[in-house]
Amino acid sequence: MAFPTSVNDQITDSVTQSNVKVIGEAPAVALGSLYQSLAHAAGIAAENLVTQQQNANNLSLAIVTRCAEALLGNTSAQE
């Protein structure tokens, strides 16, 4: 301790060590949180890509169906 106090030295030492431990772990916790956030964002981006691909496939199927109906002379395609 830098200066004498009325508190037991063991208590002040344990509090000091706890504070040092928390400060020492802060960069690792921050990086862990950052990596977790990046992984979550990448997962959402992949999910959005899959949804977009499914929607494009549905659209192309609808277009092919309309074109086939028009070629075959179906009356529903001319509405």
From TrEMBL:
Lineage per the UniProt record: Bacteria, Pseudomonadati, Pseudomonadota, Gammaproteobacteria, Lysobacterales
Highest taxon, organism lineage: Bacteria
Native species: Dyella nitratireducens
Protein name as it appears in the record: RebB like protein
InterPro entries registered for this protein in UniProt: Killing_trait_RebB
